[in-house]
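Worked Example 4.2. Consider the chain below.
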Amino acid sequence: MKFGIDSGHNCPPDTGARGIKFEDNLTLDVGNRVINKLKALGHEVVVCRPDRASSVTDSLSRRCATANSSRVDIYVSIHFNSFNGQANGTEVFAGSDSSTKIAKPVLDEIVKLGFFNRGVKSGSHLYVLRNTNMPAILVEGCFVDSQKDMNLFEPEAMANAIVKGLTGKLPTAPVNPVPDETMNVDTTVLRLQKTLNQLKITDTNGKPLTEDGISGNSTRSAVAKFQRVAGVPETGTADKATWDAINLILAKRIIRPNHAGGPVIRYLQYRLGVEVDGVYGPQTETIVKNFQKQNNLVADGIIGPASWQKIIG
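Applying the procedure from the previous section yields the following structure tokens:
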């Protein structure tokens, strides 16, 4: 059997949920264990997680393209949920009737670990399930913002449950995890460095960050710089307020004059070289229109997809 295993997210700007733990770290850890266990059972495995992407859509498209071009028999996307700190449990999304038959035993094995059974659900709205040509499932292992789930979670047990659900068996001998090279660094810090570079936030010397997963002085100075720009408490560490501001910017919402403020406007002002006050007033509007004219865009002062593409890609 040829499996396409996709450790969700882990490809900035495609990054996962954040709670008590980081989704990216969990999907990569569990995904690598699943890959190695399937190989130990004699199955062929295609890694579907891309190493780079220009956008979230590009990241998702690359995953599907890898699975489709490799003609895998079953595609499995591994994720972890987040909601309100109270929701908990496991759910598995399926893209078709044949996918549902694969999803059910995977869900059954995971809930044996003690997680609340949220059921097998239709994944017709999910990009990777709509755009893969084979039976495909997306596993939401548990909630990263639920203390109950995080107390239960153990990556080896989760990986065993997924493999047992997919194949009905586990390797008879222990399988030592053989992580990919990104597991040798702090993936949270690496993701932060990649994101700050994308946002053109430099260190104290005005240089881009080295993407090495090491939280040194350069990274801390760049974080502090971003915090000043975004108007969040300047701590030099990427706390929840910092990630919230980053996510607001990366969401690339449509921005109109006199109808927006806060971190997104402050960041735009920083990038466009206007006084950073967080208010989209007449001065900022003039600078935005000049920027749009210089880049052959409609000079309407509205920051939409075309303007965002020129600013941060």
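Confidence is low (pLDDT under 50) at residues 180-185. The first helix runs from residue 23 to 40. Compare this with Example 4.1 before moving on.
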